[in-house]
Amino acid sequence: MSTKTDKIDRLAELTAQQESSSGASLWREALKRLRASKMALVGAWIIAVFLLLAIIGPWVAPYAPGQQWRGEVFVNRAEFVGARAENWFGLDHLGRDIFSRMLVGARQTLLLGVVSTLIGLSVGALIGSFSGACATLGGRVGQRIDSVVMRCIDIMLALPSLLLAVSVAAVLGQSMTTVMIAIGVVQIPVFARLLRGAMLVQGGSDYVLAAHSLGIRKRRIVLTQIMPNSLSPVIVQATLSLATAIIEAAALSFLGLGNPDSAKNPEWGVMLTQAQNYADSAPMMAVYPALAIIITALGFTLLGEAMREALDPKLRG
Amino acid sequence: MPLLSVDELSITFTGRGRRDVRAVDGVSFDVDQGQVVGLVGESGCGKSVTSLALMGLLPKKGVKLGGRAEYDGKDLLTLSSNAMRDMRGKHLAMIFQDPLSSLNPVIPVGLQVTEILERHRGMKGAAARKEAADLLDRVGIPDPTRRLKEYPHQLSGGMRQRALIAMAVACAPRMLIADEPTTALDVTIQAQILELLKELVDQQGTALLMITHDLGVVAGLCDQVNVLYAGKAVESAGRRELFAQPTHPYAHGLLGSIPRLDAPRGEPLRPIRGSINDRIDWADGCAFAPRCDHYTLECLSGTPQLTEPVGAGHGVRCVNPVLTGVEVKTLGVPAEQAVDAAAATAPAEPAEPKIPAQAGPEADGKAETDEGDAAPEAEPEAEKKKDAS
Amino acid sequence: MSLLELDDVKVHFPVKKGLIFDRTVGHVYAVDGVSLSVEEGQTYGLVGESGCGKTTLGRSVLRLVDITDGSVNFDGTDLAKLPAEEMRTFRRRLQMVFQDPLGSLNPRQNIESILSEGMAAHGIGGTREERREKIRDILAKVGLPANALARYPHEFSGGQRQRIGIARALVLEPDVIICDEPVSALDVSIQAQVINLLEELQESLGLTYLVIAHDLAVVRHISDVIGVMYLGSLVEEAPSDALYAEPRHPYTKALMSAVPVPDPEVEDRRERILLTGDLPSPANPPAGCRFHTRCPWAQDTLCATERPALKDVGGGHKVACHFAAEIAAGTVERTAASVVPATREEMADRVVETPAE
């Protein structure tokens, strides 16, 4: 019967247009959404430029960061040298080229942000996942352990972050490593709480119950069911933390706890701190590093927000 | 003239970078005073979007409205937001599915009711509070003066829905739109709420637009029923006509797929195969064709029109309507012959009792294109019913 | 002997309060003494409204919640007293299908991984290739395309997801499947597909079902025996047809009269028994018969003081009501005026005055 095959063909043709993609995991779908997001694009570009500067900065910088124009140091001239042909951003209070110092400083700043966030993320995630696993599947004893761990974390959270960082810095002495550890420690409770909270939510979900009813071992449920679904807020937080870490480092430097070896290894936060003494007479000295910090932080924040939306499309309006 | 007259309403969502989605595609119906009109359909049929459009609650951005919705001579779709805000509450009120999220959780119920009275009826202080208590009493909330001081979370689901209805009727609106008002409730509570709605309609002449997926609720409550599928009304009729002779294959299939409490046990269900995702554009043909047991090539060429094959006032959007329904009661001309035809072919071909002769053997052929859900076997239910009666 | 026998099962959840160390301030009596038995190859339907404890009871069979008291005998073993690890291996034979088809599937696992997880946990199914073969086989049984293997739950429609949930239970070749609201999250036309599938599978694989649902019509359609739950206990149990033909407990009567039937003729003729008020809190259940606070037939004696036991009234029909016989005989009067006239026309007649606006 030809009409029969005709109509089946016609139907197949009409429904074919509606076919959807297949075999795309949630991560891949999130990546697709991320690519389509303008916010992510802007953020990614900013970060890319920052990364590039961090890598090539020390090589392309026109002068060494410590090189001084001795005749033009502030105290000798009572006037700042602004932007000019040989020094694009002018000279700082010690007669050094600000542009070169900014370029070299990009690497330090990035290193500081990444390492401190990594410290916070790894330790925080370790504590958080332990606590979360105890709370969701550990029974009565587990819940008690979780409760004790979380109260400790709460105490850490209750301390002002700067105070915490200052104490760590005071104990370990003044160095770049100290700054990284101090900022990392401040981030630990944030990551721990976040991961544990996400795990608690996932632990109460139907598919975890389903996994139980299948007879899957608890350890495996934590690893294959709960963890992968709890990670996205942590990833987003890590991106956002990179921005705050840079700013916190600036604050620590501001308090005089930053990198002591700032002559050879300038860092944006330290540069900003040094500039504050001359804010009246040489505001531009503060503006350059401040702008750089703001733009970089913005880049990470934009990417973080875009990732948050991409990973959880329900949040979008 | 009807109180509300919706004419060729269409709603299109124009997303950023995505294909336009036409959620509602030319839906027309009238609602009179004291009348209950039902919009029935499954998720994604456009019934809830219709109610939001009528209430002016759809966002302005990214939504294109077409057609008219005349209420008392005013087109609801073109009213300004201010004019619409005045309409809401005073003339039109809406009852939502989830009473908990429709009530403000941090304000006592009483304050939420008195607020409406103050805004729309200009009542003040004690008078408003007394009226609020009266309202709660009228919707069957015991001890209303105490309840007024309670917060939404302190009330049970049924009580919350009653409170919501009290708020909706606070200004004696002439028209109520209820969007799945009982779906979140238990059956015994559902029965209470439906009773309350019936009372409102019968005692105060309120017009009610009832949006639901539950054909059982429709059978007991609605005067006029519109069955929606993929944004279009596929069948619209009085409730007795619709249930006596569901003529569109979708409406027919829906009724056949519901387990009935009063049906003898062991009577098989006749599910509609596939899902709402198996559809084609209305512009290309009948959106239901991919799930239909007796579609033809004609179904796949252009939008089917609303016709009245089984009697005046019983509109069906189908080129191959099911002319022998489960029971033939209406006076449609072809009905009698069709019954005979079905009876004659039944012993030989029990699988296809209700299909017009030429559309016969296609049901199995279709299974090839349907990949996901199992193709159902058609079943000799029509005969059983006839024998029983 | 029945395949699955519950004897006086109680599940009480402690209500806790406290800053660091919690103390128990009360209990929620979610399930409070339920005994029932499910015969091999049959379907036991458990029906009741939200908060009646039916879901908790279903989960207690699999020990997904802690059983406070009572025994769950499955094939001669008391699951309630089994050590955790042994219970885990027993779960292969008792599987569960969940209400929310999307929520009960891990969104980050593809179908193959979801379906093979259980086999891996119990060390069955042989090699990876053998397992895949078996999964393909099961997918065909539940009516899913073979190319579903590499896809993820969010790429399927609601009905297909529920089929995945059923397939996940089936790969372990269980004896009993507990279906917790298997169709209530699905569209009407899809519900019928899943119900039919469950029935076909029962027939071809000889499965035993415990179906938990709030929809009496669905339960009546697929169950051989129906138990009606109210506030943590069974109030009535009977073969499906007997229960429909003659509901004996006042709650069952009210429940049945409240279920809408998609037929105006039936709807118009029907008398509705409207229950007043709401379900009491299971943390503070009423003394005596749990239902007496809402019962239209509640009497002054017994009802408020003594809790009625589930008694056989003949033909496997069990009722927990002091006055079941009297109500059936019509010798006790309804005390609450809670019956509404059937049709809207009648209702309009009843209206004496329309409140002035």
TrEMBL record, chain A:
Membrane-spanning ranges: 40-61, 110-136, 148-172, 178-195, 234-257, 286-306
Assigned keywords, A-Z: Cell membrane, Membrane, Transmembrane, Transmembrane helix, Transport
Localization annotation: Cell membrane
GO cellular component terms attached to this protein's record: plasma membrane
Membrane topology classification: Multi-pass membrane protein
InterPro entries per record: BP-dependent_transpt_permease, MetI-like, MetI-like_sf, OppC_N
Descriptive protein name: ABC transporter permease
TrEMBL record, chain B:
InterPro entries: AAA+_ATPase, ABC_Ni/Peptide_Import, ABC_transporter-like_ATP-bd, ABC_transporter-like_CS, Oligopep_ABC_C, P-loop_NTPase
Compartment list: Cell membrane
Biased composition (Acidic residues): 370-380
GO cellular component, one term: plasma membrane
GO BP terms: peptide transport
Domain ABC transporter stretches: 6-255
Protein name: ABC transporter ATP-binding protein
Protein species of origin: Streptomyces albidoflavus
TrEMBL record, chain C:
Biological process, per Gene Ontology: peptide transport; transmembrane transport
PROSITE patterns (alphabetical): ABC_TRANSPORTER_1, ABC_TRANSPORTER_2
GO MF term set: ATP binding; ATP hydrolysis activity
Xref: CDD domains: ABC_NikE_OppD_transporters
UniProt cross-references to SUPFAM superfamilies, sorted A to Z: P-loop containing nucleoside triphosphate hydrolases
Keywords in alphabetical order: ATP-binding, Nucleotide-binding, Transport
Family according to the record: Belongs to the ABC transporter superfamily.
Protein name as annotated: ABC transporter ATP-binding protein
Record organism: Streptomyces albidoflavus
